[in-house]
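Training component of the fellowship. As part of building independent skills, the fellow (R.M.) carried out the full modelling exercise for a liganded target. The chosen ligand was LIB3CWND. The inputs are recorded below so that the supervisory panel can assess the work.
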Amino acid sequence: MTRPASSALRPRRSVLYMPASKERALEKAKTLDVDAIILDLEDAVAPAAKEAARAQAAGAVRDGGYGGRELVIRINGLDTPWGADDLTAAAEARPHAILVPKVSDAAMLEDVAGRLYTLDPAQEVALWAMMETPRGILNAAAIADATPRLTALVMGTNDLAKELHSRAMPDRQAMLTSLEMVVLAARAAGLAAIDGVFGDLNDDDGLARECAQGVGLGFDGKTLIHPKQLAAANTAFAPAADDIADARRIIEGWEREDGDAKGVVTVDGRMIEALHVDQARRLVALKDAIDARG
Ligand SMILES: CC(C)(COP(=O)(O)OP(=O)(O)OC[C@H]1O[C@@H](n2cnc3c(N)ncnc32)[C@H](O)[C@@H]1OP(=O)(O)O)[C@@H](O)C(=O)NCCC(=O)NCCSC(=O)C[C@H](O)C(=O)O
Ligand SMILES: [Mg+2]
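Fellow's submitted model of the complex:
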């Protein structure tokens, strides 16, 4: 089985949550410089508003108008009164992906994938998994391999901190093991890895530091909660101009020196092997994908 088309390399620098109950936010998202949008039916929506939010999320996806932005609906868990109907409505609306909350083991995701198969046998809709429970983190590798529908793992650092009984610490020290395990699992299975949210809307320096840390850990992008956070993530997770120029020099040097035949060459005095060329090509492809999104 192949992965859904939305698993192709695409920018996920900025992934913005919005409560699907907020019509104004859904409309505003059409104008924002954002790579992906999560229409939330779960924790940001009060129980009394769940059904209206579900209808509004499905309607927004069906009506479109979001251009090249990736559209994701976060459903409620299948163990809640809303989860099964959310899954049906989301699958029928055909977003790029459905985000499953609080995934604790592979069986949970297999269950969702099994139900989704009857709703979307052509497998157009991908699955994303929230990594936000201690069991989920411990099972990260098995979750990442649970179904070919899965294309991204998303950190849920708020729920995880709650479950761990951990405290906010400098540089997210209490989260580091979990963050690294999720990046490891995602990379081993060829999935995207998206970092958790930064909750303080007035701390621009803190957001920039946390984005830089996410880049360093290997994440593809960051989940966000407000439009004012977009620029920081778009900048931090995009390849820098110097890195792109360097990548192009590596690719050109490799081709000029016939690296495929030699196995190893030097470019500007540096040893270059095929792995460096792969890295360089990935960076250039990401930059092209960002430019193509417009
Ligand atoms: C945090 C907010 C509740 C703040 O709302 P508000 O005070 O209304 O913001 P502003 O007045 O500053 O809004 C200015 C304009 O921007 C639009 N807006 C605001 N937020 C969003 C958004 N997220 N997406 C799109 N547009 C947004 C407003 O409509 C205003 O527009 P205009 O009228 O044209 O000027 C609010 O930002 C918010 O609800 N954020 C999202 C909260 C959310 O979705 N939370 C759930 C995900 S977090 C989570 O669960 C993580 C994970 O599971 C874990 O465990 O860690
Ligand atoms: Mg959560």
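The panel noted the following from the submitted structure. Residues 16-19, 24-25, 28-29, 40, 43-44, 130, 132, 156-159, 196-197, 225-227 surround LIB3CWND (ligand 1) (CB under 6 Å). The chain has a mean pLDDT of 96.
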